[in-house]
Design goal:
The protein has 470 residues and is mainly α. It has 2 domains: 266 residues, no CATH class; 173 residues, no CATH class. The chain is 83% helix and 0% strand. It has 19 helices and no strands. The longest helix is centred in the middle third of the chain and has 35 residues. It is globular and about 65 Å long.
Length: 470
C-alpha cells in the first residue's frame, strides 16, 4: 500500500467515525430548535444561552482543562494511559468541590442565582462527560467516542421533550435535560473505556502530574480567550440591549454551526494524522494539500448555509425569531475563517505548544471585546455579529503567520481566493430579500461547486466505486 493511500484511508476512517458522532448530533440539536423557540420565550432562551455560555468557559477552568492533556498525552507512542486517566480523575474530583463553591457564589450575586442547584448539576455532569470522552479519544476508541456523542444528543432530545413539552419546566427542564444526559454518557464512557480500572492514585507520579497539568493549565487562558471571542458578544448584547435580543442572536448562531460542526469533525480526525505524520519528509506539502481541500469544502458548505438560511428559519422557528437571518452572513464568513484557523492551529497541538494557542486566543479576544464595545452601541446586534467575524478572521491571519516556524502554509490557490470572493458576494446578495437574491445565492453556490470539483469529485468517485464493489 502506498503512503498516499495509507494516509487517505487513515484520515477517511477517522473522519467517518467522527462524522457519525458529530454531524448526527448537531442535526438533532438543530431540529430541536423549534421545540426551544416554542416552549421558551425569547427572554428565557436568552437566559439559558447565557447560563450555558458561562458553563462552557467555567468548566475547563475548574477542571484545569485536563481532558485536553488526557487526549494529547494518550497519543504519544510511549503513553501510560492508565496513569494519565488516574491523574485526570484526581483533578475531576477536586473540580467538583470548586464547582460547588462557584455555584454557591453564583446564587448570591446574579439574577440567575435561583437556578444555582440546576447549574451545579449541569456543570459537574458536563465536566465528567468531557473528561471521560477525552479518555476515549486518548485511547483511540474513536467509535465509542462517536457513539457517546450521539447518545448525549439522543438523551437531550428525549429529556427536553419530556421536561419542556410535557411537564413545562422551562429553564429548569432545559438544564435538567442536559445534566442527566451528560451524567448517563459519562457513565457509558467510563465503562467502555475501562476508566473504572484506574480508580485509585497509585500510578500517579509527581513529574507526570506536573507535565500534564502544565500543558492543560496553559490552555485555560486560551479557553477563556476563545470564550470571550465566541460568547462575550452575547453577554454584551444581553446587558446592553436585553435578553430577548440575545435570544434572537443566539438563533442566528445555529446555522453557522453547521459549518463549524463540519470543520470540527474533520479537524478532530486530522489531529491524529498530523501527529502520526509529524517530521515526515513531505509533511509541509501534505498539510497544504489537506488545507486546500478543507478550504474548498468549508466554503461550499458556507455558501449552502447562506443560500438556505431564510428558508430554514421560515419552517423551523416562530416569526419572533425570523429576523435572526440578518446576522447570519457575518457569522458564516467568520466561522469559515475560524475553521481554517483551527486547522492551522493543529500545529500547536502536534508540538504541544499551548502558549501558541494562548497568544492567538488572546489576540482574537482583545479584538472581539474592543470591537463589541464600540460597535454594539452604534450598530446594535449587527455590530456584535461584525465584531465576531473580524475577530475570527484576525485569529486566522495571526495563526497563519505564527505557525510558519513549524510548517510553511500556502494560501495562494483558487480555492482560497475565489472562495473568499464568493462568500462576500453571497453575503451581500442575501440582503436582497426576494427571489432574485435567492437565485443569485444559488448561482454563487453552483459556480463554487463546479470550480472546486477537483476537491470533491475524487471523493465521490471513490465512494461510488466502493459501493459498486460491495
Amino acid at each position: 500500500m502506498s503512503t498516499k493511500t495509507r494516509r487517505a484511508r487513515y484520515l477517511a476512517k477517522n473522519t467517518f467515525i467522527f462524522t457519525l458522532g458529530n454531524i448526527g448530533s448537531k442535526l438533532i440539536s438543530f431540529f430541536l430548535l423549534p421545540l426551544y423557540t416554542n416552549c421558551l420565550t425569547t427572554s428565557q432562551y436568552g437566559t439559558v444561552d447565557l447560563i450555558t455560555t458561562i458553563a462552557t468557559v467555567a468548566v475547563p477552568m475548574i477542571t484545569l482543562d485536563i481532558g485536553e492533556s488526557l487526549m494529547r498525552f494518550g497519543l504519544d507512542k510511549d503513553a501510560d494511559r492508565s496513569q494519565n486517566t488516574q491523574i485526570s480523575i484526581l483533578i475531576l474530583l477536586l473540580s467538583f468541590i470548586i464547582t460547588f463553591m462557584f455555584t454557591l457564589l453564583l446564587s448570591r450575586f446574579t439574577n440567575i442565582g435561583k437556578y444555582s442547584s440546576y447549574i451545579f448539576f449541569y456543570m459537574i455532569s458536563f465536566a465528567a462527560c468531557q473528561v471521560f470522552q477525552s479518555d476515549l479519544r486518548g485511547k483511540e476508541l474513536l467509535l465509542h467516542y462517536s457513539l457517546a456523542s450521539m447518545l448525549v444528543t439522543f438523551f437531550v432530545a428525549i429529556f427536553n421533550i419530556l421536561f419542556l413539552l410535557v411537564f413545562r419546566l422551562g429553564i429548569e427542564g432545559y438544564l435538567l435535560a442536559y445534566g442527566i444526559s451528560n451524567f448517563l454518557v459519562a457513565i457509558y464512557c467510563l465503562v467502555v473505556g475501562k476508566g473504572y480500572r484506574s480508580f485509585g492514585f497509585k500510578l500517579i507520579t509527581k513529574n507526570r502530574l506536573k507535565e500534564m497539568v502544565s500543558y492543560s493549565f496553559a490552555l485555560i487562558p486560551n479557553t477563556f480567550m476563545w470564550w470571550i471571542t465566541d460568547s462575550s458578544d452575547r453577554i454584551l448584547v444581553t446587558s446592553l440591549i436585553g435578553a430577548a435580543a440575545n435570544g434572537i442572536y443566539a438563533v442566528s448562531y445555529k446555522l453557522p454551526t453547521i459549518v463549524s460542526s463540519f470543520a470540527s469533525v474533520f479537524n478532530q480526525a486530522w489531529l491524529y494524522s498530523a501527529v502520526r505524520e509529524s517530521n515526515s519528509e513531505d509533511e509541509s506539502s501534505y498539510n497544504n494539500d489537506i488545507l486546500r481541500t478543507l478550504t474548498a469544502w468549508s466554503i461550499i458548505v458556507g455558501l449552502g448555509v447562506l443560500a438556505f438560511t431564510k428558508l430554514f428559519l421560515k419552517f423551523l422557528v416562530t416569526s419572533n425569531y425570523y429576523e435572526a437571518w440578518k446576522y447570519t452572513p457575518f457569522l458564516v464568513i467568520g466561522v469559515v475563517y475560524m475553521t481554517l484557523g483551527t486547522f492551522i492551529g493543529t500545529s500547536y497541538s502536534v508540538h504541544k505548544d499551548s502558549v501558541g494557542f494562548l497568544i492567538s486566543g488572546m489576540f482574537g479576544a482583545i479584538i472581539n471585546v474592543v470591537l463589541n464595545l464600540l460597535m454594539i452601541k452604534h450598530m446594535g446586534v449587527y455590530g456584535s455579529a461584525l465584531a465576531t467575524c473580524i475577530s475570527y478572521l484576525s485569529v486566522f491571519i495571526f495563526r497563519f503567520f505564527h505557525t510558519q516556524k513549524y510548517l510553511h502554509y500556502r494560501l495562494n490557490n483558487i480555492e482560497f481566493i475565489c472562495g473568499s470572493l464568493f462568500l462576500i458576494i453571497s453575503s451581500c446578495v442575501m440582503f436582497i430579500d426576494n427571489y432574485l437574491g435567492f437565485l443569485l445565492q444559488i448561482l454563487c453556490l453552483l459556480i463554487a461547486v463546479v470550480l472546486f470539483s477537483r476537491d470533491w469529485l475524487p471523493l465521490i468517485k471513490v465512494t461510488l466505486k466502493k459501493i459498486r464493489k460491495r
